[in-house]
Amino acid sequence: MSDDAGLWLIFVLIGLATTLPRASFIVLGERASLPDVVQRALRYAPAAALAAIVVPDVVLVAGAVEVFNPKLGAAIAAVLAARASRNPWLPFVAGMAALWGLRWVAG
What we know:
75% of the residues lie in helices and 4% in strands. By secondary structure, it is mainly alpha-helical. α4 (70-84) packs antiparallel against α5 (90-106). It folds into two domains: 1-33; 45-106, no CATH class.
């Protein structure tokens, strides 16, 4: 098998591996349902995915954990603003203001 054919075979297999599980819920509909425990656990999947993306960028500086960095302070300010208000823009404004202020203070 040539390199090109092998690469195309891998593309097709990866496509099937990602499409079939997703399509199975659409095709099977109500005939296939997840247990209640799994459905309750899946409610937290978007928040867990977002945390997995954001937390390393906020906590790590040059690959090492640094407790005193502007991004961590800005994230804390954004979380506090989100908890204090139902305004969807306030966490962005508070987080960016804290980030700019802490970067200005740190030099």
